What we know:
Layout: E1 5-8, H1 14-26, E2 31-34, H2 41-58, E3 61-65, H3 68-73, E4 78-81, H4 88-94, E5 100-105, H5 108-116, E6 121-124, H6 141-152, E7 158-161, H7 169-173, E8 179-182, H8 184-188, H9 192-199, H10 213-216
Parallel strand pairs: 1-2, 1-8, 2-3, 3-4, 4-5, 5-6, 6-7, 7-8
Amino acid sequence: MIPKLHYISQGQTPEEHLEHIQKACTAGAELVQLRLKKLPGKVVWETAKKAREITEKYQTRLIINDFYKIAASVKADGVHLGKTDTCPTVARKELASWQIIGGTANTLEDCEALLDKKVDYIGLGPFRFTKTKENLSPVLGINGYLTILEELKSQVPVIGIGGIVLEDVTELMKTGVHGIAVSGEITRNFNSISEFKKLINGGPLDEQRWISDEKIK
Length: 217
């Protein structure tokens, strides 16, 4: 089952990404995507290993953006591949059967191509303009999601992504998306995770976080 709320990490440094992942896990995140760009593979691998250690202690799923071989190496829960990243069928050969693959889509044709490549979920967006991603595809808005999902008619979970804030969630969920991926809004306020989960009906927040920040460090 693909969680309904995905947190995509942000940060100026790998250490800041890890700090944010720690906070997201503490706040009840069910799935975290480590998204490091323009860094050497060794740095991404070392950071992914540390992210795996953090997320394991909270039983939070970890997805690695782009680097599918690193996802396989650190035994992450899967990989998310952008439109210009490695083909999902190539990544599948490197991953264990239990590791999931997500792919980015902007159009109905993108979605259908990903379904042909047997992805486990589709990240469809952007919902609105966002500065967190370069070379942004055309913004979809509510009408874009409605149009694509009405045609797609697939059981594969579709995750809305791209500049999503709390005020968007109710209307966005009505379009038929399975869930949402959020970066900026959660990074600004990790306590918003509980509010997001309530709005998407993703299950109650686990209040029994018995591992303290000090123990994680």
